[in-house]
Amino acid sequence: MENKSRRTADILALIGILACGICLCILVYRLQAKKEFLMQRIDASQKLNAETETEIENIKSDTAKLQEDIRIYADMEKTAAETRENYYKVCKQLEDAVIAHEADCKIAYLTFDDGPYLNTTGKYLDVLDQYGVLATFFQIGRPSEELDPLYRRVYETGHTVANHTYTHQIRNGIYRSVDAFISDVKRNREFIEDKLGYTTDILRFPGGSSSARNLKPAIIEELRKLGYGYVDWNSATGDGVQMMTPAEYRDNVLNKTGNRDILVVLMHDYSANTLTALPEIIEGLKNQGYIFLPLFYESSMINK
Amino acid sequence: MKKIIIILVLLLCIPAYFVYSLNKETKALEAKLADSETKQTELNIQLNDANAAYQEAESELAETKEAAEPFIEENEKWKTRAEELQTYLP
To answer: How many Cβ atoms are within 10 Å of A222's Cβ, its own excluded?
Structure first.
């Protein structure tokens, strides 16, 4: 009886051990499955993280490129001004080469005094645009809102805007004294600055520098202090002196170049006859080997 | 019989050890997964921020470019003029 109960207890113990064994095996199996599941999720999560990190880096790099472009575009006004300055440096190199007879061309600086004029200056600009010619406009102070677009157009097209005094009052005006002249120059400089945000550094005396007579040396000294250089001319249509036909204006320029290396041609943008003559003047000078430049401060034609 | 039982009980220690070891590993893996998912959340925030910064830069660029348009044109004009002049240089 005792043996029987012991055997029963042993069998029960074996069954218990077996059950425990089975349970543990099931647990091992399930934990193993869970471990594999977790490892897969971790792999997937880490892969996703790596992809996200790469994407973030790419976006940051693209954003940096955009910001670089923003900087470039934000500086574009300055860049354009620098490129314009660089153009004048090339003009200077070319002028030096022309003077040294090392270039295959001569230079003509077309200059227009006394503008802008509402009825004619725009037409002059159209002709110059048509021929791709840059010139120099010696402007005076004309405080009329109607003329503002013309002041701007001259400058924005690339022509040189230069100072010709505010009032241009030759008799009993600007040549009364050095102070009278200089204050008129300053007034026009400020007037143009207000209109264009541009400070002129080239000046032409109304009537030419000889009009200043005995005041000329003192005026030039004051102009130098203000940072101005001045220019006269060595060629002219004559439209400021005498009324002539367009053909006569044309011939006054084309027949009197004297084969000079550098011409500074005086014209006035109020003259309808000069306007008519202008295309032939441009073509005639081109045929004589001239190219057209706007005046710039460093030019050898500017007296400093 | 007793010996057999003792041996079997001892043999049970092997799967029990496996259970212990696997349980420890899964706990560590769960913690690692949690870390990875937390990092994922942070990265998603960073991604959104980066996208927002990109969009902002893109619209700022469009505005800046539009404002710079006349100067871009002007810059090109002066470049072309300088290049044309250079053809006359010796």
So the answer is: 17
B2, B13, B26: best to mutate for the A interface, most A CBs within 10 A: B26
Chain A residues within 8 A of B25 when measuring between CB atoms: 35
| Other beta carbons less than 10 A from residue A130's beta carbon | 11
For residue A101 the two structure tokens come to 């007879």
Q: Which ipTM did the prediction report?
A: 0.86
CA count, 13 A, side-chain hemisphere, A271: 25
pLDDT-wise least confident of A8-12, A222-226, A257-261:
A8-12
- The answer to whether the Cβ–Cβ distance between A87 and B67 falls below 8 Å is no
Task: Please compute the mean of the pLDDT values over residues B25-33 and round it to a whole number.
Answer: 96
> DSSP letters along A194-257, please?
HHHS----EE--TT-GGGGGGGHHHHHHHHHHTT-EE---SEE--TTT----HHHHHHHHHTT-
Q: Is B13:A23 a contact under the CB 8 Å cutoff?
A: no
* pLDDT tens profile A223-251: 999 999 999 999 999 999 989 999 999 99
Domains of chain B: which residue ranges? 1-90
